[in-house]
C-alpha cells in the first residue's frame, strides 16, 4: 500500500498508427470517463501545436469536453502554455470553464513556446517569449482579482477561484515559489534535478491568496502490469516515438510494441530507444508500490501526476486500474 497521496492523470491525446486525430481526442475523453470511478483526483490535458503524434492542441476546449463527460473528478490543463496566449483570453477561457463546471476546474500553466521555428512563427512568438512568463502569470492572476487600467474586466473570470499550478520546467520552480502557487515538476527519471527544484521551491515559497503553503505535484510515467515484461512493453511505443523524433526531427504516432521490437534500428536509434525505456516507474504492483513509496519519501510530494502513453488502450487502462488498487484514499488537503 502507498501512503495517503492524491494520484492524478495527464493525457496528451497521443495519436496511434492507423487512427485519426479525432479518435485520439475521443480516446482522451473516454479515458477520463473510465478513470473517474477509480478514484483519480484530477484529469489534465496538454497543449501541443503542429506535432504529428499529438492531437491535443486546444487544451481548454478539450478540458470542456472532459468535464462534460465526467461528474466529480477535477479537470484541467497540464498545461496552457502562457507565452502562446494573451493572459486576458486565458482568464476568459478558464472563467467560462469554471462557470460551467464550478469547483472542478484547474489552471495548469507552462512557459514553453512552439516546438519548431515554423510553429513559433505561426503563433507569432519567438523563443524569448518564455522570458516574460512571470509577468504574464501575474497579469493572468490579476484578471481573476479585478479589472485593469482602462476599465477592462475579464468576464466571467473576475471574482472566480480557479486553482493555478505552475509547470516547473527550468526556472519554473522559482517562479512558482515567488508567486505562491502549487508546482508540478517532472520527470521521475531525473530524480536529482527534481529534488533540486523542489528544494528551491520550498525554500523560496511565499504564501499567497492562492496557496498558504508549498504544494508539490511530481509527474512521470508509471506502468503497472502482471509482469515486468508486460510493464516494459507498455513503455515501448513512447520510447520509440521519442527516439525517432530525436533522429528524424518528426514526432510520429505510436506504434504497437511488437512493430517497434521488430524494427531494424541504427546504433544511435537503439541507444536513444533503450534510454527511453529506462528510469521510469514500471513493473508489477509490488514493484511499483515500492518505487512510489521511495519517490514520495524522497520528494515529500503532495500528489503524483501520471503521464503514461502507450499504443494499447486496454493495457493502459489495466495499468491505471492496477495503480488505483495500490492507492489508499488521499488525506484531505486544500484545493
What does this structure look like?
The chain is of the alpha/beta class and about 325 residues long. The chain has a domain at about 1-15 and about 30-40 and about 220-330. Helix content is about 45%, strand content about 15%. It is built from twelve helices and eleven strands. It has helices spanning about 20-35, 60-70, 85-100, 115-125, 135-145, 170-180, 190-205, 230-250, 255-260, 265-275, 285-300, 315-325; strands spanning about 5-10, 40-45, 75, 80, 105-110, 165, 185, 215-220, 220-225, 280-285, 305. An eight-stranded parallel barrel has the order 1-2-3-5-6-7-8-11, surrounded by five helices. Strands 9-10 form a two-stranded parallel sheet. Helix 2 links the parallel strand 2 and strand 3. It starts with 5 loop residues before the first strand and ends in a 9-residue tail after the last helix.
Q: What would you say about this model in short?
A:
Helices cover 44% and strands 13% of the residues. By secondary structure, the protein is an alpha/beta fold. The strands form 2 sheets. Strands 1-2-3-5-6-7-8-11 form an 8-stranded parallel barrel, surrounded by 5 helices.
Amino acid at each position: 500500500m502507498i501512503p495517503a497521496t492524491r494520484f492524478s492523470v495527464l493525457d496528451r491525446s497521443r495519436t496511434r498508427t492507423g487512427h485519426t486525430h479525432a479518435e485520439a481526442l475521443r480516446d482522451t475523453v473516454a479515458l477520463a470517463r473510465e478513470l473517474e470511478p477509480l478514484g483519480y483526483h484530477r484529469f489534465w490535458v496538454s497543449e501541443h501545436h503542429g506535432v504529428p503524434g499529438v492531437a491535443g492542441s486546444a487544451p481548454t476546449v478539450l478540458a470542456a469536453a472532459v468535464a462534460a463527460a465526467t461528474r466529480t473528478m477535477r479537470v484541467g490543463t497540464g498545461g496552457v502554455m502562457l507565452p502562446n496566449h494573451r493572459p486576458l483570453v486565458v482568464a476568459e477561457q478558464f472563467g467560462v470553464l469554471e462557470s460551467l463546471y464550478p469547483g472542478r476546474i484547474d489552471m495548469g500553466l507552462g512557459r514553453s513556446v512552439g516546438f519548431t521555428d515554423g510553429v513559433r512563427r505561426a503563433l507569432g512568438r519567438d523563443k524569448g517569449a518564455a522570458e516574460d512568463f512571470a509577468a504574464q502569470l501575474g497579469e493572468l492572476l490579476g484578471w481573476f482579482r479585478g479589472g485593469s487600467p482602462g476599465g477592462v474586466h475579464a468576464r466571467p473570470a473576475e471574482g472566480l477561484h480557479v486553482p493555478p499550478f505552475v509547470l516547473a520546467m527550468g526556472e519554473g520552480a522559482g517562479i512558482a515559489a515567488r508567486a505562491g502557487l502549487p508546482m508540478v515538476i517532472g520527470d521521475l527519471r531525473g530524480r536529482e534535478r527534481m529534488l533540486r527544484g523542489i528544494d528551491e521551491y520550498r525554500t523560496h515559497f511565499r504564501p499567497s491568496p492562492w496557496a498558504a503553503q508549498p504544494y508539490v505535484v511530481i509527474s512521470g510515467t508509471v506502468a503497472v502490469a502482471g509482469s515486468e515484461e508486460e510493464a516494459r512493453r507498455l513503455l515501448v511505443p513512447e520510447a520509440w516515438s521519442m527516439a525517432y523524433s530525436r533522429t528524424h526531427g518528426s514526432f510520429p504516432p505510436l506504434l504497437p510494441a511488437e512493430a517497434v521490437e521488430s524494427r531494424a534500428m541504427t546504433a544511435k536509434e537503439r541507444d536513444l530507444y533503450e534510454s527511453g525505456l529506462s528510469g521510469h516507474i514500471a513493473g508489477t504492483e509490488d514493484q511499483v508500490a515500492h518505487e512510489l513509496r521511495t519517490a514520495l519519501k524522497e520528494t515529500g510530494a503532495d500528489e503524483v501526476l501520471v503521464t503514461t502513453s502507450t499504443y494499447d488502450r486496454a493495457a493502459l487502462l489495466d495499468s491505471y486500474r492496477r495503480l488505483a488498487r495500490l492507492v489508499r484514499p488521499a488525506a484531505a488537503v486544500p484545493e
